[in-house]
């Protein structure tokens, strides 16, 4: 297991001169930090800052370090951060296997074998040639998770990743996602409105306020 860690130092984000959020956090390998708070409290803004997509209207100061590397001003694609959203957003023009191969580092050894193993891990052995449109919501969510992990991120941001799933599936996906993130030793930041998500993540919880 690799030991990735993410640090947020003296982050302060303001909008029109008003401070929206201030945060210091250290997320160790396999830790999941949950961020909660009312609508408009800045949860998506925090993720956008970390991922490198923050809109120009915001003034941000502070630093983010990933594995000791200052990523604060790096372009999004050089940060090594993986994202998991509410919608699985699989590429419709690629097969399930094509989706899984998409973000794999160029130097990855034996890609077909790794794709096959990944499909087995999520109970979708033999689904490699399928069109993603023919998968159920739960199956798409599992493929999106594996595509993320196969891209070998150094940290993961999750934005309400389970909110579109029904209760039963939600429970199942929580288990799968959190177990996989822990096993991969990835520091993760979870944004959610759901207390059960936070409890299941098992880490610290931060509440953003206005
Ligand atoms: N591009 C933008 N330009 C100006 N203001 C913005 C922009 N994006 C968001 N805001 C404002 O920034 C504040 C924080 O928004 P943000 O989306 O981070 O909240 P949130 O906690 O994620 O809310 P929700 O739970 O509803 O998703 C809000 O007041 C919002 O109106």
TrEMBL record:
Alphabetized Pfam families for the sequence: ABC_tran
Coiled-coil intervals, chain numbering: none
SUPFAM superfamilies the UniProt entry points to: P-loop containing nucleoside triphosphate hydrolases
PROSITE patterns with a match to the protein in the record: ABC_TRANSPORTER_2
Residue ranges annotated for the ABC transporter domain, each copy included: 5-210
Molecular function via GO: ATP binding; ATP hydrolysis activity
Record-linked InterPro entries: AAA+_ATPase (IPR003593), ABC_SmlMolc_Importer (IPR050093), ABC_transporter-like_ATP-bd (IPR003439), P-loop_NTPase (IPR027417)
Highest taxon listed in the record's lineage: Bacteria
Keyword Ubl conjugation tagged: no
Keywords: ATP-binding, Nucleotide-binding, Transport
PANTHER family: SPERMIDINE/PUTRESCINE IMPORT ATP-BINDING PROTEIN POTA, SPERMIDINE_PUTRESCINE IMPORT ATP-BINDING PROTEIN POTA
Listed name of the protein: ATP-binding cassette domain-containing protein
């Amino acid at each position: 297991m690799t030991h990735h860690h993410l640090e947020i130092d003296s982050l302060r984000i303001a909008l029109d001169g008003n401070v929206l959020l201030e945060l210091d956090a250290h997320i160790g390998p396999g830790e999941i930090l949950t961020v909660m708070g009312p609508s408009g409290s800045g949860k998506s803004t925090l993720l956008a800052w970390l991922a490198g997509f923050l809109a120009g209207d915001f003034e941000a100061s502070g630093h983010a370090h990933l594995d000791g590397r200052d990523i604060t001003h790096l372009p999004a694609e050089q940060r090594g951060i993986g994202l998991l959203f509410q919608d699985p957003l699989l590429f419709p023009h690629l097969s399930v296997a094509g989706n899984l191969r998409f973000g794999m580092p160029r130097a990855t050894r034996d890609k077909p074998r790794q794709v096959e193993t990944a499909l087995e891990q999520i109970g979708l052995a033999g689904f490699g040639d399928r069109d993603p449109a023919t998968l159920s919501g739960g199956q798409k969510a599992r493929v999106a998770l594996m595509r993320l992990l196969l891209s070998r991120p150094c940290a993961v941001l999750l934005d309400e990743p389970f909110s579109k799933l029904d209760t039963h599936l939600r429970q199942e996906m929580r288990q799968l996602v959190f177990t996989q993130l822990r096993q991969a030793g990835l520091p993760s930041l979870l944004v959610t409105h759901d207390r059960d998500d936070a409890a299941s993540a098992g880490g610290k919880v931060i509440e953003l306020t206005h």
